[in-house]
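Quick one, tokens below:
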């Protein structure tokens, strides 16, 4: 029960279409390890804790949303050196998919939450560098912001916070996971009832208050678990490999 690394990487590069959008992340294989894969770990963040759990679970590859290399490689020292050294010593391949995984129409963070909330009339939302990385749609029944937050909590885990400045009952929802609050002006322009993202930014308060917009924050980490989990299921369907989700939550 194993597959060549190159075959898996080629599939992920194509399926996730990693060249489609300009990204500060170095998407694709970031650190190369062993060439034969029989178990793949999926995690939100590239970090020492995730590497150690992956190695303990006998993974040969770790697929993450937030990788180790951003804006090109300028040096390998300090914490980065320790991480690279650990990966190489354990033969652990590190693969990252950042914005391509946010925006993916089948396994992306945003579409997975849209599906879980059973949104209808789903269409792309959230313009970023010429691409739409989120999704918007309509709830099956009108719901309060608290009700939507509790539903998301059941789906994703974690806690939520909110800016309850809009309608008491919401029908239209827009989703941009992680640090997606820059899409708030678009949500306002489109008359969205509830905007969902991961983490807050200070300027969101008055922007949402003055526009009578409801905003729901799910936590950056929890809002970006669905994509890597879905990639794991996809890999198991495509290849003769086992996958495991490595849960290493942050406080953000």
């Amino acid at each position: 029960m194993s597959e060549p690394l190159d075959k898996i990487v080629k599939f992920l590069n194509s399926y996730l279409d990693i060249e489609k959008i300009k990204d500060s992340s170095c998407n694709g294989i970031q650190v190369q390890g062993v060439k034969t894969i029989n178990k793949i770990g999926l995690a939100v963040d590239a970090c020492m804790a995730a590497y150690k759990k992956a190695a303990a679970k006998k993974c040969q590859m770790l697929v993450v949303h937030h990788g180790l290399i951003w804006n090109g490689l300028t040096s390998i020292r300090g914490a980065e050196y320790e991480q690279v050294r650990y990966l190489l010593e354990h033969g652990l391949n590190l693969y990252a998919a950042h914005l391509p995984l946010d925006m993916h129409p089948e396994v992306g963070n945003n579409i997975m939450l849209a599906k879980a909330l059973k949104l209808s009339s789903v269409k792309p939302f959230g313009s970023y560098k010429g691409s739409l990385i989120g999704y918007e749609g309509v709830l099956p029944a009108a719901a309060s912001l608290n009700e939507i937050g509790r539903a998301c909590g059941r789906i994703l885990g974690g806690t939520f916070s909110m800016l309850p400045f809009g309608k008491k009952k919401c029908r239209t929802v827009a989703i941009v996971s992680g640090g997606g609050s820059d899409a708030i002006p678009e949500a306002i322009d489109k008359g969205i009832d509830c905007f969902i993202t991961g983490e807050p930014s200070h300027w969101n308060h008055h922007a949402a208050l003055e526009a009578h917009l409801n905003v729901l924050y799910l936590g950056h980490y929890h809002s970006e678990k669905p994509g890597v989990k879905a990639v794991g299921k996809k890999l198991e369907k495509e290849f003769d490999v086992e996958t495991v989700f490595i849960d290493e939550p942050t406080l953000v």
